[in-house]
């Protein structure tokens, strides 16, 4: 009841207040033809007739088309106007309007609650929003009292709905979860980590709303804003690495920046603007959304938007390629890449409107002749501060004197950079839109960057370079010392001291083993120049090989493994293959030749670096890959090159991308931060390195790791205060867990949720800081807290704690050791149904009430996990078992059965699961074929078992062959279509009923079971 009162009803009230018409569940059902249909038919029919001026029969035919449309991207295209159909009495297709984007008042906006959809497993989302009878937004509400524990449940339910009632999500724009206080949204199919808050109510402010929920829902669901989001801010981007298509919805800063710029173009005001969206926050996608809205502008009319030309410029070929791929991957209409100056001028001079050109600023070098009618060109310039160098900005301005200019940057603009402000910014405005470093970290769009200085003895102070040289090179022969001095002492000379590099390489390897390796993250080493890259490669490879040899590997194997872990990326030089009489120089040139990667090899190395579990683990660079290289898996940058200003900001941002790595044991580790390990002394003079910027723009570009030490102390104090308040101090982990369960059962569950939240924070900060020595004072408490959290979660939620699976590897190993040493392993460890000891809990004789309760709790958690995994594999086959587990737990918690009775029920359930898992062998079928049979039995009960069995075996053969011949078939849309045709043919040959639901569920199962789990 509290969910309705505290979350669901306030959400409905807020929606009604902004113009949504409420429908009761009964009224909604009456409009749906059948309970398994999701479109409000009379509403859609009326809208189709009104918006298109068509008759009842044509509207009915269009409804029939849409009622069977199952592809989300196809729905998106049709909603935006890409739908045509042959109407009665006509000899050609006519465009069909489903939504009037320009006049929101011509559409019907309805909201209903408890929207039950009939299916094999019926589901009831809390609220659904309809535009013209089409369901576009699903809202799941949870009680705010349970927000810390129930957030995962809300996301699980959304995923469950998407799996069990896919019809509701075919036209879906996005989903919302809310507890009445916090509200998150995510695109259809998004994992929980990609749900995010919409923080800024631009062009309004938070003060305009009575409470956060009304603000959040207005931002996302106010009718005209929802139509704007639907029309311009949803894309389907193809991942170039996997070929997988990913649906993306804009974030609030993208919506805000795009609409500010579009307003300027529409009104003709100022004709320029400067946009800073910090690196890692989706700047390239912001440019895509802006180009898309300028191109289609479905929600507004303006002469300047009639058919504009858009020119997207970068300052480097690799960024041009990256932006181009993003535009093409997102399906932007007609982007053309200009590969030469002649091609660019020809395209610009062509005079046709509606072009989208992608190029580099260098194509304009030397160009002074103005393009006629340049006022119809909108120029979007990426990393715009760099386009002002070498008069390139002046050439661009001369070529397109009347164009609109919008500059984008991933780093702040220096306060002294007058040219960039003059070219792109309105006087006195600064940034048209700013999404800074702190904004991105607060929103979870990026992770914070921590820095630590290492090996202070080997840091380089440029002011003392002569003193350091004499000290470090004291053992060098006089003639060599003098030769080096004659060349001129530089930072590079000192940085490449052999002993210095050897010691730093050892330190890097030890640091990497503790911070990156346990969780599968990777690292980049930034050396002072190309020669230093080769020196670091040799020293690091030697350090790794020696370590592997000490662990038992033979010399050749250790060397090969060490070499495979490292890749070097640098530019070649004509000097590299020249012979030298100086042995050291020849060795370096040989190394530069041996380890140089050509374009194809470099691309492959970068691809493998981005993949968890594949080598290389280290990239060693000097200039390349410090900008424009996005590898979220990069956790640490080992910095041994003096960098300043933009170069420093862009380099360190390689580590700020969010990332989660899924380990072989099922654990999923979130990257807690990016780390900069400084060997050159840059961070010791951070203020000087960034002095050209406004202080508030770069205030938290990097945070000293010492900040985490204070965070750990504060997190520990808050956790201990709550623990004392619940009178758990001095108890063992097991006793405290059951005491917490008693407190929660006594109506004080808020206290448990507070302790749960504070415990998680304490353990997380401890793990983030590790291996810093400051953690040692808290290690014993962390061990207790983690074991307690696992036990208490089992006792209270009758489920396993997922926290321990998300701990970093080094923390998880430490905690597992603690659990075994304290004898808690038999209490905590959850077994699989195949474990020989799984049935031990079913023996109830001679067990005390306390032991019976403990056995029931453990079995509840084990069977919830077992059935969850089975349902993920095949919901049609195992869904009923999951629901039986939940029903037994519900009856126990309601006092309807005792622990012994519950264990007996669990024993019967376990037997039924095992029987179900063995049926396929009795029928002489493969396991996958039998799973397909179960899907078909539920969807086509009128067919005979033998008919369905034969068809299931045939379909299994289709997907088994696909997996054998095309292992990546799950990512190949055209190939999947051909497989669907084969499945349709098999179903038709066996006269099996309505085939679409069967084909959809079979394909979903096949992608998971035959296609390597890609979904």
Explained architecture:
The protein is α/β, with parallel strands linked by helices. It is 50% helix and 12% strand. Helix 9 crosses helix 10 (283-296), helix 19 packs across helix 20 and helix 38 packs across helix 39 (995-1009). The relative contact order is 0.05.
From the structure above, extract its key features:
alpha/beta; 7-stranded parallel β-sheet; 39 helices; 26 strands
* Rough outline: globular
**Largest sheet data:** 7 strands, parallel
> Mean pLDDT across all residues, rounded?
86
What is the count of DSSP helices, taking H or I runs of 4+ residues? 39
Estimated helix fraction:
40-55%
**Number of strand segments:** 26
How far from one another are the termini? 35 Å
Structural class: alpha/beta
Low-confidence stretches: none
Strand content: 5-15%
Question: Widest sheet: strand order?
Answer: 13-14-12-15-16-11-17
| Radius of gyration from the alpha-carbon trace, in angstroms | 31 Å
